[in-house]
Design goal:
It is built from no helices and 11 strands. The protein is mainly beta. Strands 2, 4, 5, 6, 9, 10 and 11 form a 7-stranded mixed beta sheet that branches. Strand 4 and strand 5 form a beta hairpin.
Length: 123
């Protein structure tokens, strides 16, 4: 059974940083693409960043480039999202997701999802 478990969310002041982690288990994720999404109240779920399981290819939503960094820890089977220079508009539930084919920014194309972790940025 595939499990994606996010951690690291919390409350931070504007300009601060948080590091989210997604622990993946339950199957071999070779050739999977791992994505981070977020969803604010009343808004659609949006793509934040993604990375191939090899770690060689990364993608970012335009509004996150330069502030967020996605990475993999192969030893721990985790996908991390380092978020710097956080803004109040970054407040959302952040989700980890996995899909068994190539990169995608479309939430509907992902096969597995974590339960989400809340990130709140105060002004």
């Amino acid at each position: 059974q595939v499990q994606l478990v996010e951690s690291g969310g919390g409350l931070v002041q504007a300009g601060g940083s948080l590091r989210l982690s997604c622990a993946a288990s339950g199957r071999t994720f070779n050739n999977y693409y791992m994505g981070w999404f977020r969803q604010a109240p009343g808004k659609e779920r949006e793509f934040v960043a993604g990375i191939t399981w090899s770690g060689y290819i990364r993608h970012y939503a335009d509004s996150m480039k330069g502030r967020f960094t996605i990475s993999k820890d192969n030893a721990k089977n985790t996908v991390n999202l380092q978020m710097n220079s956080l803004k109040p508009e970054d407040t959302a539930v952040y989700y980890c997701a996995a899909r068994s084919y190539g990169p995608s920014s479309r939430a509907a194309e992902y096969d597995y999802w974590g339960q989400g972790t809340q990130v709140t940025v105060s002004s």
